[in-house]
Specification:
Strand order of the largest sheet: 4-3-2-1-5-6-7
Structural class: alpha/beta
Helix content: 25-40%
Number of helices: 9
Number of domains: 1
Order of helices and strands: EHHHHHEHEEHEHEHE
Largest sheet: 7 strands, mixed
Shape: globular
CATH architecture: 3-Layer(aba) Sandwich
Radius of gyration: 16 Å
Strand content: 15-25%
Distance between the termini: 13 Å
């Protein structure tokens, strides 16, 4: 058994979930600026996530789910996951985004499991608070180590794929570190760089 971990936003999905939500809420400019700085590693991920989610306060959960269920996926996402699974990989998603998107996408893209965050709501509206498995800059690396131990999968049998600064923490625990259409901060630590938005290009490294 081997393991491949994907980031979700801007890796399997074409864009950032929170930016799509922010457009609906009318705060796309404010959220977009923070997202860009967070993915470039210029500001703390935890603080950036809390600040961005606070700007979504009052949004209808039904509208959140509608948006999250209609997100565009990156070309080759479904195909590369199928290829990985045919080669005995467990395919897992770690996302600083939200279960509204990752749980839904699991049935479409057919990965094995996902770990992401939860948008808190009250009476059908977002409260502006957030919690979950992927709140911090170190969260992905921490979770990767736990999964490797549980599944008895080694560093040499692990691939990680991401695009932003919050993916850095999992790079040290994988032999193949893939920067996919990534920020420079991640490219510097990668040993595989894919600059075209097509996940089928990962196939030659499997």
């Amino acid at each position: 058994m081997k393991l491949c971990v994907f980031d979700f936003d801007s890796t399997l999905m074409d864009g950032e979930t929170i930016d799509f939500l922010a457009t609906e809420a009318g705060v796309e400019k404010e959220v977009g600026i923070i997202t860009k700085r967070a993915m470039a590693g210029e500001i703390d991920f935890f603080e950036s996530l809390r600040e961005r989610v606070s700007l979504l306060k009052g949004m209808d959960v039904e509208k959140v789910n509608e948006i999250c269920h209609n997100l565009p996926y990156v070309n080759g996402a479904k195909e590369i996951i199928a290829k990985l699974k045919s080669k005995s990989y467990k395919v897992v998603v770690f996302s600083g985004g939200f279960i509204n998107a990752t749980n839904y996408a699991k049935d479409i893209l057919e990965y094995d499991a996902s770990f992401s965050n939860i948008l808190h709501s009250t009476d059908g509206k977002l409260s502006g608070l957030v919690g979950g498995d992927m709140m911090f800059g170190f969260s992905k690396g921490d979770m990767l180590q736990k999964i490797q131990i549980l599944l008895n999968i080694s560093y040499n049998d692990t691939i990680v794929v991401g695009d932003g600064a919050n993916d850095l923490s999992m790079f040290q625990y994988a032999k193949q570190k893939v920067a996919f259409c990534a920020n420079e901060v991640l490219k510097k630590e990668a040993n595989i760089i894919i600059n075209s938005k097509d996940l089928n290009l990962l196939d030659k490294y499997l």
